[in-house]
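[09:14] KT: can someone run the structure on this one? pasting the chain below
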Amino acid sequence: MKKTIAIIGADDKMGTAVAKELVTGPYHLLLLGSNVTCLGQLLNELQMIFPGTDAEVLHCFVDASWEADIIILATAFAVEDSLIARIREVATGKTVIVLVNDDEELAIGQLTERLSYSKVIRAVSAPLKEAPYIPVIDGKPVRVFIEMIDEY
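[09:31] RB: done, structure tokens below
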């Protein structure tokens, strides 16, 4: 059975990169963000990359979080704070992956408290231009590399 992954912030650089990496996997992707035009363009691009794309654009963070097995937060923390209050109840029992840039601070303790019935994972995106090598998975270079550094 396919896992459903909600990517909140799919209209931002990090969220877009994650969607492009996950599109060929055995997942149903739910793309969310504030820029509907950008999300539509991303969906079209994903369908060109992988014609069998199982993805859709949703407009309700709560509905998407309810439907998802895994929730990826690829948004600025200021936005996440208000977002967490909205998705808290439907995120119960789910894995929530919080993506941050290497240079961003994140109050992961506060987030873990607010999502106390979820498995919260903090992940840092490693800029590949500074990496000593470009990772290759299944014969393809990886455009985004996520390193999990904290698990709660």
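[09:33] KT: thanks! Strands lie at 3-8, 27-32, 55-57, 70-73, 95-101, 119-126, 136-137, 140-141, 145-151.
[09:34] RB: yep, looked fine to me
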